[in-house]
Amino acid sequence: MKNLFACLSIAFSLGLVACAPTQTSRGTGQVIDDASITARVKTEIAQTAGVGEAAAINVDTYRGVVSLAGFVDNQEQANKALEAARKIPGVTSVKNNLQVKPRGK
Q1: Over 90: is that where the pLDDT of 36 sits?
Q2: DSSP assignment of the chain, as one string?
Q3: Whole-model pTM?
Q4: Top-confidence residue, 46 or 52
Q5: All domains of the chain, ordered by start, with CATH?
Q6: Closest-CA residue to 35 (of 53, 8, 13, 62)
Q7: Paired sense of beta strands 93-100 and 57-62, if any
Q8: Which of 11, 57, 76, 88 could form a disulfide with 70 if both were Cys (CB 3.0 to 4.6 A apart)?
Q9: What percentage of the chain reaches a pLDDT higher than 70?
């Protein structure tokens, strides 16, 4: 009986350690928080810049840092997307990798 209890205690402890965040990984709670931030940023961009522009912008969040990537029609749209991302609670910083589409000749 003591061996069974010891084995269960070790297994439980290992399970807790596996879910804990480290310097290079996120815990379950952080993953959920980041997914929530991503969803809120996408919604805000869609409401601010319009659905068409929002669909062309990729939003990714890691530990509260939001990365915006994709193509927009002009610098004003890029600025609106950047402002929309910055005002979401939980966003610690925003990396702007948006590019303005080149104009056709």
Answers
A1: yes
A2: -HHHHHHHHHHHHHHHHHHS--SSS--HHHHHHHHHHHHHHHHHHHHHH-HHHHHTEEEEEETTEEEEEEEESSHHHHHHHHHHHHTSTT--EEEEEEEEPPPP-
A3: 0.71
A4: 46
A5: 26-100 (3.30.300)
A6: 62
A7: unpaired
A8: 57
A9: 70
